[in-house]
Each structure stands twice: as C-alpha cells, then as structure tokens.
Amino acid sequence: MKTSSDYKTTIALIGMPGAGKSTVGVILAKLTARGFIDTDVLIQMSEQRSLQEIIDSEGYLVLRSREERVLLGLECRGHVFATGGSAVYSHAAMEHLRAHGTMVFLDADLPTLESRVRDFGTRGIAQRPGQGFAELFEERRPLYLAYADIVVPCSGRTQEMVCAAIIDGVRRRTQG
C-alpha cells in the first residue's frame, strides 16, 4: 500500500479538448494554493506561434513531439498542470507527470465536448488529417483511462463541483 509520501504535490489534468482542463486548472490551483501551468501556453510561448500554426506548417506529429518535449521538461512541484489533449500519446511524458504527482482524467461525454468545442478545425487539436472529433474521442478515451489515477466525470457538473471531486479524490488517494 502506498503512503502519502509516495505522492508528490502536483496534479496533472488530462482529457479531451473541451473537458475543462485549463478552466478547472486555474480554479483548482487557487483552491489548493498551487501554481498553475497550461502546457499548451508553454508550447506556444516556446514556438512563438499558435498550436494551429504548428499543425498547419509542420503537421500534427510535430505538435505532439513539441508537447512531449515541454512535458518532459517540467520539474515543478506544487502545481496544477493542464496538459494538451494529445499528451497521452507520449508514454514517457505521462510517466514523467505521474512520477511527480496525481493524474486526473476530466471525463466528459462526447455530446458535452462537442457543445464546448466549436472551433475544431482551428483550435490546434493534434489529430490525423480527416479525423473527426468523435473518432478522436474514441481513440483517446482508453488512453486517458489507462493513465488516470483518478477519473472525474465532468458532464453536467459545474467547474466548482469538478474541483471538489478532484480535491476529494486526491485527498483519499494520498491518505490511503
């Protein structure tokens, strides 16, 4: 059995675009007195261009590679990380984040995600050319579930309810 000393203070949020990682991450960081880092923003800052511009000029696999590099470079403790939706394609990055804390999958159903993501073609989502959002959801969901230490259902819940569920899940995990 793991003890609380086995778990670091970082919370990494994983999930589909539209699940609420960035929005929930900011609120969660405030509620838990942690710093907040959005890895999509780190990529854009390091590349000096948007995620969509990277995809348009170099392809979705290059974006995934840049995302992996940024994630592997994170050494922060005491933070909430909002990862890009494609972070789960990198086993090395997921294990790196897991080694520094708790992986939380924000699990929203497809209709909820589709209602939130209206800019699918320009949002900078790393998907194969011609791949639709529903197909991407079906491909990624098993990966999120495989890496998650905690799964938090998000559909029909407010951001505050999601944060409360995360805090409760992390507390139960670190106490047991």
Tell me the number of helical segments per DSSP (H or I, 4 or more residues long).
8
Whole-angstrom Rg = 15 Å
Helical fraction: 40-55%
Tell me the major beta sheet.
5 strands, parallel
Low-confidence regions: 1-7
Major β-sheet strand ordering: 2-3-1-4-5
Distance between the termini: 8 Å
State the order of secondary-structure elements, H for helix, E for strand.
EHEHHHEHEHHEH
Taken as a percent bin, the fraction of beta residues is 5-15%
What class, by secondary structure content?
Answer: alpha/beta
Tell me, rounded to a whole number, the average pLDDT: 90
Topology, number of strands: 5
Bulk shape: globular
Description:
With 176 residues, the chain is of the alpha/beta class. The chain has 8 helices and 5 strands. Helix 3 (51-58) packs across helix 4 (60-72). The longest helix has 17 residues, at 159-175. The chain is globular and about 45 Å long.
Present the secondary structure layout:
Elements: E1 10-14, H1 21-32, E2 35-38, H2 39-47, H3 51-58, H4 60-72, E3 79-82, H5 91-99, E4 101-107, H6 110-116, H7 133-147, E5 150-153, H8 159-175
Parallel strand pairs: 1-3, 1-4, 2-3, 4-5
